[in-house]
Design a protein that fits this description.
With about 325 residues, the chain is of the alpha+beta class. It folds into 2 domains: about 10-125, Beta-Lactamase (2-Layer Sandwich), CATH 3.30.450.20; about 130-330, 2-Layer Sandwich (Heat Shock Protein 90), CATH 3.30.565.10. The chain contains 10 helices and 12 strands. It has helices at about 10-20, 40-45, 55-60, 65-75, 125-160, 165-185, 200-210, 230-250, 295-305, 330; strands at about 25-30, 35-40, 85-90, 100-105, 115-125, 200, 220-225, 230, 260-270, 270-280, 310-315, 320-325. The longest helix has about 40 residues, at about 125-160.
């Protein structure tokens, strides 16, 4: 029967190299006089200069205001606890950047008479940003799915009003849902090397075709915008905007009944492209306070952040006029 191998003894130099390679910062808090001792990596992590009398209050001032009370309460609570603890929080660097820190340690080192805590700091900014990105993506995907279900329901209602038999309704509904599927493809970026994603007018035409009986250039949806090419990123962003505006119109505006009209016009204004989305014959005008959901925030973020522009609403009797201003230079990327 073989004997278990004994655990190796690591030298102090080996431990230092391991700590350095892992990006670990060391600290000790002497509770009685509030002294906080840290190694050079910790000072670098917190973005503070070396001080001879560093205290817990010094560090608390660097903690993000939204996390400060929680961090103080957690550290105070561990004074009476023997054993490990862990807490994640944000700090503000001197450059006003936000950095996520994970503090892990051992309260009293297992001995309540020592009145000190020892532990490590880890920079977990990358992990936290990835988690936030996943949450944002999940929220956006959930929003898109809800929108697509609402669009499918709205298209079903539109088709039912314009057909007399179930066979005719099934045929037209299938055609519209197929068109909606083609339009949804425009929301995804094109692979590298495929050039411009679409023409501005084609983007509106394809995305709005499912809502019109006879297409976007005839019937109750009319499109007249300058002929210009869109880059991959801008086409993706603008497609999201058109989807959102069309969804709102289908739920509440001109496309919610069989008498409403939708006009989309555009013009070059200095270095901007101005798009006017004008609805007539819809339900009663909705107040700006009603436009505070995720969709409205998505519109604002997309227009201002990704297209370098602005969006304004003007509620009128039986409709709304939405004015989009976007940088022409942004639309080419």
């Amino acid at each position: 029967m073989s004997q278990a191998k004994s655990q190796p003894e690591w030298s102090a130099e080996e431990l230092r190299r391991a700590i350095k390679s892992a990006g670990v910062a060391l600290w000790t808090w002497i509770i009685d006089d509030d002294t906080f001792v840290m190694d050079a990596k910790a000072y670098e992590l917190w973005d503070i200069s070396h001080e001879t009398d560093l205290t817990f209050e010094h560090l608390s001032a660097k903690v993000h205001p939204a996390d400060r009370d929680r961090v103080r309460a957690a550290f105070v609570a561990t004074r009476a606890i023997d054993g490990p603890f862990e807490i994640d929080f944000r700090i503000l660097t001197n450059a006003a950047d936000v950095r996520w820190i994970s503090a892990r340690g051992e309260g009293n080192e297992g001995d309540a008479t020592t009145q000190k805590m020892t532990g490590i700091f880890l920079d977990v900014t990358g992990r936290k940003q990835a988690e936030e990105g996943h949450e944002l993506l999940a929220g956006e995907m959930s929003h898109r799915v809800k929108n697509l279900l609402a669009l499918a329901a709205g298209l079903t209602n539109i088709t039912s009003r314009s057909t007399d038999t179930k066979e005719e309704m099934a045929k037209q509904l299938t055609q519209r849902l197929t068109a909606l599927g083609r339009a949804h493809e425009l929301v995804r970026p094109l692979p590298d090397g495929q050039g411009e994603a679409a023409l501005l007018g084609d983007l509106f035409t394809v995305l709005l075709a499912p809502y019109d009986d006879v297409g976007a250039f005839a019937g109750r949806i009319r499109v007249a915008v300058p002929r210009m090419g869109l880059g991959e990123k801008s086409a993706t962003s603008l497609a999201l905007v058109i989807h959102e505006l069309a969804t709102n119109s289908l739920k509440y505006g001109a496309l919610s009944n069989d008498k409403g009209l939708l006009d989309i016009s555009g013009a070059l204004v200095e270095d901007d492209i101005e798009i006017v989305w004008s609805e007539h014959g819809g339900a009663d005008a909705r107040s700006p306070q009603a436009m505070e959901g995720y969709g409205s925030k998505l519109l604002q973020r997309t227009i201002s952040g990704q297209l370098g522009g602005s969006i304004n609403y003007n509620w009128v009797d039986g409709g709304v006029v939405v004015t989009l201003r976007m940088k022409e230079s942004h639309l080419s990327t």
